[in-house]
């Protein structure tokens, strides 16, 4: 299949709910008529104007964050460190600037194209961080503001009709935040247990996630393109 299947449309909720619901769904990018895709296994929620780690904290409204104020179901893509693009799913209602950062995928389709885009990286590292996955799937600022509900270039496909059970989801503080006070400890990062990019397929509670080996231990690299750390929706 080179088109897009049934889309995940459940984005008009609060960001914590959407962050959990996105786990196990499939991010799809169409490039030159061909699919590149991966199963979402790691997300972070950003709670808008009250959240010091969010780009829209305190009502900030600049051209860069304009897409965060769109209705749920749009893409918010921004560049960090002048090097890496980060892909977020806007959620909630129109005018409420909340979003979910997609941090990692289990690569599924278009592996060769992803590897070429990532300079020959190992499959287990193709989509192991927010900057890695955008490079692998050719997601850049041209997709900022795209409507994920009907855009032919990019979508989130529904794989599982219900949220993964709580026992399958690890919840931790978000990674790589700056000086955001108590928000640094807020448990707003959600990871499929055993299913971070490169994780063991046996721990993934859906049948079509590929096996990609085990992730490298440790975090905290301070680079958005690496799995360990990034600023996000900030």
What does this structure look like?
The chain has 234 residues and is mainly beta. It has one domain: 3-methyladenine DNA Glycosylase, Chain A. The protein has 3 helices and 8 strands. It has helices at residues 15-22, 111-117, 130-137, and strands at 26-31, 34-46, 75-80, 84-91, 98-109, 154-157, 169-172, 189-192. Strands 1, 2, 3, 4, 5, 6, 7 and 8 form an 8-stranded antiparallel beta sheet that branches. Strand 4 and strand 5 (98-109) form a beta hairpin. The longest helix has 8 residues, at 15-22. The chain is globular. It starts with 14 loop residues before the first helix and ends in a 42-residue tail after the last strand.
Low-confidence stretches: 198-232
Largest sheet: 8 strands, antiparallel
Oligomeric state of the chains in view: single chain
CATH fold descriptor? 3-methyladenine DNA Glycosylase, Chain A
CATH structural class = Alpha Beta
Q: Which term fits the overall shape?
A: globular
Named CATH architecture? Roll
Q: SSE order in H/E notation?
A: HEEEEEHHEEE
The chain-level structural class is: mainly beta
Mean pLDDT: 86
Number of helices: 3
Q: How far apart lie the N and C ends?
A: 36 Å
Beta-strand level of the residues, as a percent range?
A: 15-25%
* Number of beta-strand segments: 8
